[in-house]
Amino acid sequence: MNPIFADLPTTVFEVMSALARDTGAVNLGQGFPDDPGPADVRARAAEAVVSGWNQYPPMMGLPELRQAVAAHYARWQGLEVDPASEVMITSGATEALAGALMALIEPGDEVVLFEPMYDAYLPLVRRAGGVPRFVTLTPPHFRLTEAALAAAFTPRTRVVLLNNPLNPTATVFPEADLALLAEFCRRFDVVALCDEVWEHVVFDGHRHRPLMALPGMRERTVKVGSAGKIFSLTGWKVGFVLAAPGLMRGLAKAHQFLTFTTPPNLQAAVAYGLAKDDAYFEGMRADFARARDRFASGLARLGFSVLPSAGTYFLNIDIAPLGEHDDVAFCDRLVRRHGVAAIPVSAFYAHRPVRHVVRFCFAKRDDTLDAALARLSGLA
Ligand code: PMP
Ligand code: GLN
Q1: Which atom of ligand 2 is found nearest the CA of 14?
Q2: pLDDT tens digits for 19-73?
Q3: Ligand 2 within 6 A of 167 CB?
Q4: Is there an atom of ligand 2 within 6 Å of 11 CB?
Q5: Among 57, 109, 60, which Cα is nearest to 242's?
Q6: What is the extent of the structural domain holding 305?
Q7: Do residues 55 and 197 both lie within one domain?
Q8: Are residue 243 and residue 322 in the same domain, yes or no?
Q9: Aminotransferase class I/classII large domain: from which residue to which, for each copy (predicted)?
Q10: Closest CA to 30 of 348, 374, 342
Q11: For ligand 2, is residue 27 a contact (CB within 6 Å)?
């Protein structure tokens, strides 16, 4: 069934942020950092506004940004893409995902989704006429299994949508899982739509491995990234799409009629930012890792059961050991009575089979994290 958009609920992020504002809670719900983003990148955008980058830029993106994106992925992920035919700039990863689903799916095509999944996926798949087939991932490790993939893929599967690293579980899929998925994509002749917006936010020696780099995936992967996550500028909404020319032709048409272009001043600033030296990206990761460790050890000291966080700026707790089996009710109490906003992970499942995991965003200043910990004290 194709739900009418107006009947869909307001996203849990918006609801929780509004509750946090109304109650004066520390907001560790919606994922956005306290950090204002690199000053030089913001200055570049301001300069570009003042000095005249304010008319429609080329539809596929500023050439300098498309080149910077190609160079960035060659440097960090060993991908060789042609900026002229294999890179497109979109208004955030969200537009890229919506456009890709519009371009790739014919009504009735099946789309494999891994739940928990980012909240935009399912409504967009359904609106494009896709039929979702779910693979349910479960705590604590949220790994892919051959049996689960075999149950989800069919001859009608057209697209599989993978988010790696995975929001909300903070999972970085190991090479073995990616290889398994790639094998299914090849066997069933499926396009992989890969949401890799968290690719730079990985910890503990992990290095992001793009699905596109696996054997046989170069021609059948649409890779999506976002400057919002790379530079802690979530409101900028500058996204990148990488795809082989045959796929890109359809994606470009979707972009043409969805937004056509993306603000040129922000594009110019992102082009500058992507060329920053390795130290910037390593430093960002190190800062997030420090915040993760501070918050994780604080939660553990208070007696909470903390799940692993290998990537993204999210950390989850298992509330079952507290005798809690309804994450929505738990988060509601947390924000109203204890003054901390968090996200119930069941909101990321289509059928809520898992209701005992709660997500916190730790991309915050130390004093914000410490204030949240003080309020959580005595709950576990
Ligand atoms: N996909 C995932 C998995 C995300 O976490 C987010 C943002 N939180 C997005 C897409 C949206 O990215 P953008 O803001 O660039 O549209
Ligand atoms: N990606 C952010 C999160 O997961 C929120 C984005 C949004 O508010 N739509 O918290």
Answers
A1: 8
A2: 999 999 999 999 999 999 999 999 999 999 999 779 999 999 999 999 999 999 9
A3: yes
A4: yes
A5: 60
A6: 5-37+279-376
A7: yes
A8: no
A9: 26-376
A10: 342
A11: no
